Amino acid sequence: MREETPKPLYAVVKAHVTARIRDGSWPPGTRIPSENALGPALGVSRITINRAFAELARDGVLQKVAGVGTFVARDKPRFGLMTIEDIAEEIAGRGMAWSCQVLALAAAPLPAEAAQALGLPPGAPVPHSAILHRGDTAPIQHEARWLRSGYSAGYLDQDYRRFTTFAHLVRTGRANEMEQAVSAILPDAALARLLDVPRSQPCLVIRRTTFTDGVAMTFSRLVQPANRFEIAGRAALAPL
């Protein structure tokens, strides 16, 4: 009988961590022992623990927060394929605290992609916002949004640390149609830093345009690390 090849030590560590999660010892949101603490407990080096944690974080099992620790990942926020939801509510619904960082909030020249979606000339100055949404302390989504001038009164005057741009648009906008597409990218250096991911981490991009009576009013580019969220939807089908 052929003997089984022993598992690499990092795989043994991964199995130990996932077993503790599955048996309920480490429920979602739990801060697990540090690399320095777990290494001696399992009789392996810190480098081995680091590799195991890195692979589990890549797979969405763990969440590493710089300067804080490593946590068991909570359920991923879910974004609809055929609906628009408030990201703050989606994050809160997964047991995480929503917060955000306002990166930009001013009139700005339209980039080519947004100009095409809105049917306006590139470079035209329009209201623009860029927001980094977090669940607990982990970046979940980078949201960049451009609006047709005159749409959504007071858009640039709000404190979006208190509520989302979506919430304001629901109160003031008049959108009655939506179009969106999803694609995958590898982030550039600046986006990778904001989302706290390596440049090799796939991210999904939602490009969303909303319309009022057939006229494009907003264009949004939403980027999320693929291991921190999911896209899902359910719709009725016509009888076959």
UniProtKB/TrEMBL annotation:
Keywords: DNA-binding, Transcription, Transcription regulation. The keyword Flavoprotein does not apply. This is UTRA domain-containing protein. It holds the Pfam family GntR. CDD domains: WHTH_GntR. InterPro entries: Bact_HTH_transcr_reg, Chorismate_lyase_/UTRA_dom_sf, Tscrpt_reg_HTH_GntR, UTRA, WH-like_DNA-bd_sf, WH_DNA-bd_sf. PROSITE patterns: HTH_GNTR (PS50949). Residues 7-75 form the HTH gntR-type domain. It comes from Falsiroseomonas frigidaquae. It comes from the Bacteria. PANTHER family: MANNOSYL-D-GLYCERATE TRANSPORT/METABOLISM SYSTEM REPRESSOR MNGR-RELATED (PTHR44846), TRANSCRIPTIONAL REGULATOR PHNF-RELATED (PTHR44846:SF16).
